[in-house]
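User: Can you help me understand a structure? I only have the sequence.
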Amino acid sequence: MAAAIGIAEEMKQYSLGPTWTGLPDSYSVRDIIGSGSFSKVAAASCKVEDVQELVAIKCCTDIFNANKMPRGALFAFREISILQCLSYSPHVVNLRDVFRLSPETQDLYLVFDQAECDLHSFIHPTAPFPLPSLPSSRISVSELHLIAHQLFKGVQHMHQAQIIHRDLKPQNVLLFNSTEAGAGVVLKICDFGLARKVADKQIVEVSDSSVLAQVTEDGDNSMATNGETYDPVDEELPTAVPKMGRQLTQSILTPNYMCPQFILQPEDYDSSVDLWSCGCILAELLETLEDSGKEPDERSVIFAYTDKRGLMPDPFGRSSGTTDSASGNVSLSEDDPAFDRLKKILTKLGSEGASEYRDGVKLRQYLRSEVAERKANEALADMYRATPQGLVCLLQRLLRLKPERRATAWEAVGLLESSARSLPAAPSFCTVDPSNQAKLLPRDFDSPPEDGQMLSGDPDAKKREFYRIQNSWCCTNLDKIVEEYPSGAKQNKISHRT
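Assistant: Let's start by predicting it. Here is the structure, written out as C-alpha cells:
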C-alpha cells in the first residue's frame, strides 16, 4: 500500500508539468485542482515562519504574450486591482502574493488562501464533505442564514466599492473552516476576472441601519419598513444600486445564473445582475435544508440551461434572432437559445410557455408587468412551501423580473437579519459595515491614457491598435504590482544583486 501511495504521489508531481517548476522556494505544489480557458489552479503549501500554510496558486498563462492572448494582461490587471480594492472585506478571497518566475517568462502567478471546497461542491457533493463545522451537505435554517448572510455581506462590500462581479455562481463562492470554535464556516467570493467598476457618482450610499425590512409575525407574504406593512409586489424598498455608465458585453454571466434583461434588451445594467445570480444561488441552497427532502443527487439549479455553447449568443441580431435597428426590438424564434432560456424562466415563474410572447417587444413588456411579478411570487411560494417564510420572501425579492424592483445587497442583509430573529436559536451574525471601509478604484482604471487619441481610422484597425496599447499599458502596470508583493519584491532584490 505504501509503495502504491508513493507511486501515486510521484505521478501526481509528474502530471504538474513545467508550469509549476521554478516557483519561489517558499511554495510547494501538490496537485492541479482546477483549470479554465486562460488559467490553471494548483493546491500548494507555503512556508511562513516555519509553518506550512495551505494555499491555491492560480497560473494565468501567457499573460505577457501579446501575440497569443492580447487581452490576458487586461483581465489579470482588472482582477488584481479589484481584489486590492476589496481587501478589507472578510467575505472576499484574500490575494496573498503575485509573482513572475523571471522578467522573461510570460505567465503570472496569483496566490490565494486555499478553501476546503466551493459552494457548488457543498450543494452537489461527490465525496465526503471536508468541513468539520458542517459534517454533511444537509444544513439547518440557522446555518443557511449564516451562509447566505456572508454571501450578501460580501456582495454589499463589493457594490459599496462600486464593483459589479458579473459572474456570481456557486463555483465562485468558497467555503473555509473557521478558526474560531463554534463559528461555522467562512464564505468568500472569488474569481473577479469578469468584474467591472461602475460609473462614478452613480451609487446611492445606504447603510445597514436604513434598511428596516422585516417579515411580519403572522407569516403572511408581506414585509414592513418604517412600521408600514405592504405586499412585496406592489412596493419597492429603498435602493442603493450602482449604475453602469455605458452598455457592456451581454454574454458574460454563466447561463444558469443570467438575468432576463441580459437575454432580451440592449440596455445599460447595474448591480441588480449580481442580485439575480444571488437569488439563483439561494434557490440552490434552499434544497440543502434538512426539511427540503432533497438528496444531493436530486438537487438542481432553479433555471437549468443546457445550450452546448455555454454562453448566451448575442440576442441582438448578429447570432440570435433579428433586431429592428430603429427600435432595438428583438424578434425571437423557437430555435433561438435565447428563446429557450426565457421559456425556462417563464415556465418556472408562472407562465405555461413563451410562445405567445415571441415578439421581443411583447416579451419585454410581459417581463416588466405587474402580472408577471405577481405570478412569479406565487410560483416561488408554491415551490418552497416547506421553507421558512422569511427566506421565501427574500427569494421573491431577488428573482424579480424587473431589475429596478430587485432587492439590493443592503436589503437582502436586512431581510436575513430580520428573518433570523424569529428562529428558536437565532444565529450570531458578523455585522461589519463595509461603508466606511470601501476603497474606490480610479475612474476608468483599466483604460490607458492614450485611448482618447484614437478618434479616426478604420474601425477594425483602431480596435487592434487600442488592444495593443491597452495590453502594453496593463503589462507595465502588472510589473509594478508584482514588485509590491512578497515574492516579487524578493525577486526584484535578487535581480538587482546579480
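Now, to help you interpret it: Residues 448 and 470 are 6 Å apart (CA to CA). The chain has 13 helices and 15 strands. Let me know which part you'd like to focus on.
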